[in-house]
Amino acid sequence: MKTKIIATIGPASSSGETIKKMIFAGVDVFRLNFSHGHYDEFTKAIHEIRKLNKKLETHIAILADLQGPKIRIGEIEGGEINLVKNDHVVFTTVNKNASNGKIFINYPDFSGDVKKGDKILLDDGKITIQVTQISGNDEVEARVVIGGKLFSRKGVNLPNTKISLPSLSEKDKEDIKFIIDNEIEWIGLSFVRSADDIEELKEIIRSHNPKNLPMIIAKIEKPESVTNIDSILQSAHGIMIARGDLGVEMPLQTVPVIQKSIVKKCLGMSKPVIIATQMMEGMMNNSRPTRAEVNDVANSVMDGADALMLSGETSIGNFPVETVETMQKIIREVEQYEDIYFKQQRPVKENNERFISDSIIYSGCNMAREADAKAIVSVASSGYSTVKISSNRPRATIFAFANNEFTLRRLNLVWGVKPMYFDRLINTDQSISDLMHDLKAKGSLQNGDLVVHISNMPINQPGKSNMLKLSFVE
């Protein structure tokens, strides 16, 4: 299976036994959602995953998803309020004033940023309210356009408003330290608006001087992030198309087109791309998905996603293991077809310091296709070459060897990559021979299989790919 599965850990899936079953079912990456949960719960999950990696000789990665500047309302008297069309509503940024029909919103500059006519969407867009008047520095008056029951602490989306909130809250900064201390491989940055948000996170990560640098996944869930996607792609290490908030802040009918466009851009720039939200939500309470959900998963694989993410389905759903098993079956079926393979991107020579290595990789992927090679073998130092090979979407299995467990876990998110530990880098010929021996011993290859080797010479020193070799397994 080449398309990877990301599963969110929560109350339904936090036990060691369930995590183990989910790995066997097909999970490649576990997501920790820092919008919910506590450090002791995250520490326990990390310990279980790393323990199972050692026991099962796997390289399951972890994605830490930061909360970001999530806007919410506060506590409502009685826990809920029924909003009726044309009702008059007052939002306040002062919590102690949240009474007598006033609703607290945790956005200090709310009254300064919104303007008359702006829409306020509550509870994932179920309720629509429109600003009618700004009343001083801490209150905003509004009218209910589409009503419904509003419960405490529901989320707020402002599709027409340029938000001045910083991209990282104080909570996020504390969470980043925890993430670095626990050597988590991927960080999801929520509500990205521009490349500056990613650069700010990079600076904070560097300031902690980590032994291993976590990679940044930019979550695309706001109109600004779609507008600025090219510069965000330049700065981020990967992309998540977070269709939940994106489908609230933008017209629903635009999301499928945006998804396909962003996946194509990610392939062209060799950046891993995750498709997320409501993929198999029907399985939260049912043992089978809907036909529409099966089609959604299948189309996301055909679009070319590196990974598909499960959220509530595995964190609080009734069938976490069965959901992963079902998603795996859909992926396997779709991957039998040719149209998801061979997305080669011819290297550009101008202003490309990696032109030689990119050309080696491009030629190697073409060689694997023409020769019907069983595998492409890469020795990974930084992981750049492995990700570049993956973005060409070869049918051959990509084996990435490294002596750094962190690098191997990080690469486990990337399409088609099978990470393997290897620490016997002596010289090129001996190392290739040893690699083939290990793959044969594990049953991954057999005599007569053709293999493409992409590496750097000398092989025992980190560097850019400059070697290409085609050989039979003997």
Please give a structural write-up:
The chain has about 475 residues and is an alpha/beta fold. The chain has 3 domains: about 230 residues, TIM Barrel (Alpha-Beta Barrel), CATH 3.20.20.60; about 80 residues, M1 Pyruvate Kinase, Domain 3 (Beta Barrel); about 120 residues, 3-Layer(aba) Sandwich (Pyruvate Kinase, Chain: A, domain 1), CATH 3.40.1380.20. The chain is about 35% helix and about 20% strand. It is built from 16 helices and 21 strands. An 8-stranded parallel barrel has the order 1-2-3-12-13-14-15-16, surrounded by 8 helices. β17, α14 and β18 form a beta-alpha-beta unit. α5 packs parallel to α7 and α10 packs across α12. The longest helix has 18 residues. The radius of gyration is 24 Å and the shape is elongated. The two termini are about 25 Å apart. The model has no long low-confidence stretch (mean pLDDT about 90).
Task: Provide a brief overview of the structure.
The protein has 474 residues and is of the alpha/beta class. It is built from 16 helices and 21 strands.
